[in-house]
Design goal:
Layout (H helix, E strand, L loop, with lengths): L14 E4 L2 H16 L5 H14 L3 H11 L5 E7 L2 E10 L6 E9 L8 H15 L4 E7 L3 H9 L3 E11 L16 E2 L5 H10 L3 H6 L11 H13 L2 E10 L2 E11 L5 E7 L8 H12 L7 E6 L3 H9 L3 E12 H7 L1
Parallel strand pairs: 4-5, 10-11
Antiparallel strand pairs: 1-2, 2-3, 3-4, 5-12, 6-11, 6-12, 7-8, 8-9, 9-10
The structure holds coenzyme A.
Length: 339
């Protein structure tokens, strides 16, 4: 283990310590709640509830249970001062062979910030990943979080890609017009292979590194065809797809999923890099037209934050960024080798 307690030498259990669920679970739950409380998604809230529940069981039983229940929180480091957990970082293997590790829950209590605690915790995490033979440390940060971004850059993390969700609360009374020159035509469900190929072409190499595209989310086999037909018949959901072609090549496409199941509709689109700047407004406008016949729910568009013309088209149509996350990475092997 590459980490030692960095606190005052007279207080052996102070400073950076490996996360031990028997002693730190309650403190980490309180810290995560204080720092991220309002910002947690449903999974995060559920995990936090479990942590709080388990920490009430006492050090032994709670510690044992947490190993099974809270796999995500088992590795990590805390910063302890006067018996209080005031800093945390969590580590999780992100792939099968342990080459990639995900860093999350980086948090320092408000009253203790700017003292180097965040940097010390991150450094401990990077050393630990190197000790365990990991190659890359990967994390995500909201693009507006400059404090965390500067911390990560300082430690040698570099930008990988931006991905976000944009939200339109209601359709505008006057829908944007679709430029007929964009040449959008309906896409058949059977055109899933060109759409998959387009999805590949429209993401950068680094974005592919961060997350490989799952063909299953494009593939439309018989089961999916029947499902989509049934969805339309029952009115539960309706999928529409439109695309612009250059001969046999799909240049750009938009897909809308109008549903009454989730109380929001979805819109996603992609444009080949060489066709960027000319089709985005038409794709978003076409998507909004397709959704105009659906119940009046908000519309969520998940899109690459690196596609500037796509983001501009969403914002021109009234969408606002709900959450844009920057993925960052750090080559732990080369850093270790460089020492
Ligand atoms: C981000 C966070 C963990 C930083 O912890 P910290 O202990 O205050 O950070 P450190 O004192 O180790 O600072 C290290 C470097 O980070 C950067 N930094 C930290 N806070 C900053 C701030 N408020 N503004 C600008 N830069 C900041 C600086 O580059 C700093 O180096 P410097 O002090 O030499 O200029 C802390 O602000 C926090 O808990 N924020 C809320 C939770 C959060 O956003 N977590 C990250 C989620 S991805």
């Amino acid at each position: 283990m590459a980490v030692f307690a960095l606190g005052r030498s007279s207080q052996a259990q102070e400073g950076v310590l490996p996360f031990d669920p028997r002693h730190h679970l309650r403190g980490v739950a309180e810290l995560v709640s204080e720092v991220f409380g309002d910002d947690l998604d449903a999974v995060g809230r559920e995990t936090l509830r479990e942590m709080q529940m388990v920490s009430r069981l006492g050090p032994f039983l709670g510690g044992m249970l947490s190993m099974g229940l809270l796999g995500e929180f088992v590795y990590g480091f805390v910063w302890v001062e006067r018996g209080q957990v005031i800093g945390n970082v969590t580590l999780q293997r992100a792939d099968f062979d342990g080459a990639r590790w995900r860093i999350s829950n980086v948090a320092v209590a408000r009253a203790h910030r700017r003292r180097g605690i965040g940097r010390a915790l991150l450094q401990a995490a990077l050393d630990e990943i190197a000790d365990r033979g990991g190659g890359w440390a990967v994390l995500q940060v909201r693009i507006e979080n400059q404090a965390a971004y500067r911390l990560y850059r300082q430690l040698g993390f570099s930008d990988v890609c931006r991905d976000g969700a944009w939200r339109l609360p209601v359709l505008p009374p006057r829908l944007p017009q679709v430029n007929p020159n964009a040449g959008l035509r309906p896409l058949a469900a059977a055109d899933w292979m060109p759409r998959l190929e387009l999805a590949h072409a429209s993401r950068s190499q680094l974005a592919h590194w961060a997350e490989t595209i799952n063909p299953a989310s494009y593939e439309v086999g018989l089961g999916r065809l029947l499902g989509e037909a049934l969805g339309r018949l029952t009115g539960l959901y309706r999928i529409e797809r439109w695309g612009a072609w250059d001969g046999e090549r799909l240049l750009a496409a938009v897909e809308t999923i109008a549903g009454s199941l989730h109380e929001y509709h979805r819109l996603r689109f992609a444009v080949r890099p060489e066709a960027r700047g000319g089709l985005e407004n038409a794709l978003v406008a076409k998507g909004l037209q397709a959704l105009a016949r659906a119940p009046a729910f908000p519309i969520i568009a998940e899109h690459s934050g690196d596609h500037a013309a796509g983001v501009a088209a969403l914002e021109a149509a009234g969408f606002r960024a709900q959450r844009v996350l920057l993925t960052m990475r750090h080559n732990v092997e080369s850093a270790a080798g460089a020492v």
